[in-house]
Amino acid sequence: MAKNRLLLLSNLVLVGLLIFSGYSFKNRLNTTSTELKAEEVKSLEAFVDVYKVLMSPRCMNCHPAGDIPLQGDEQKLHAMSPMRGVDGKGILTLKCSNCHAPEGVPGEHTPPGNPEWHLPPADMKMVFEGKSPRELALQLVDPERNGHKDMEALKAHADDGLVKEGWTMGGDRALPPLSYEEFKEAWLTWIENGAVATAE
């Protein structure tokens, strides 16, 4: 009897911990209350700017819903129809690096370059295309969908070379709606104030 009572008590404690941890995680990511703290408001306002940049062609073209990258300011399917591949770098002989060299080639309508040019891998596609602000915010802070990044890694990701490439591709490509410095500030402000997602 005592053993059964102890087992029941242990199970109740475990369930309580799971509920509490689940609530804490949900509460941090899914702010639906109309009574927001000042830092939550600051986070939400910052994400408005973050979202504008992530929805721009310079970001979304390499975060498509399908397995073919988008191309140009019109965000059409890539003319060469390269496929994502397992590692995000293409398949068979049609690799991203065939055209996207370590450095960009000067001139109009030439492919931008970067030594790390690739799409996200097949097992972690990190799609931006078609995502609402809430959907994208929740995805960005979910390690199971953001490349296994915690909050510190997310903050550091703003300095990733491929992220910065969005502002240096050259040619007649439209720049993101914020400068890189403005984007980084908004990105860090969003994360450091709770990485709050909109209610809808």
Strands in their spatial order, largest beta sheet: 1-2
Distance N to C terminus: 50 Å
Averaging pLDDT over every residue, what do you get?
86
Number of strands: 4
How many helices? The count is: 7
Poorly predicted regions are 1-32
Which shape, going by the Cα principal axes? globular
Q: Please state roughly what percent of the residues sit in beta strands, choosing from under 5%, 5-15%, 15-25%, 25-35%, 35-45% or over 45%.
A: under 5%
Rg is 21 Å
Largest pleated sheet:
2 strands, antiparallel
Write the layout of secondary structure elements.
Blueprint: H1 2-29, H2 38-54, H3 57-60, E1 70-71, E2 76-77, E3 90-91, E4 94-95, H4 133-140, H5 151-157, H6 161-164, H7 180-192
Antiparallel strand pairs: 1-2, 3-4
Helix pairs in contact: 2-7
Keywords:
two-stranded antiparallel sheet, globular, 4 strands, 200 residues, single chain, 7 helices, mainly alpha
Give a written overview of the molecule.
- This protein has 200 residues and is mainly alpha-helical.
- The protein has one domain (33-192).
- It is built from 7 helices and 4 strands.
- The chain has helices at 2-29, 38-54, 57-60, 133-140, 151-157, 161-164, 180-192; strands at 70-71, 76-77, 90-91, 94-95.
- The strands form 2 sheets. Strands 1-2 form a two-stranded antiparallel ribbon. A two-stranded antiparallel sheet has the order 3-4.
- A hairpin with a 2-residue loop joins strand 3 (90-91) and strand 4.
- It comes from Algoriphagus aquimarinus.
- This is Cytochrome c domain-containing protein.
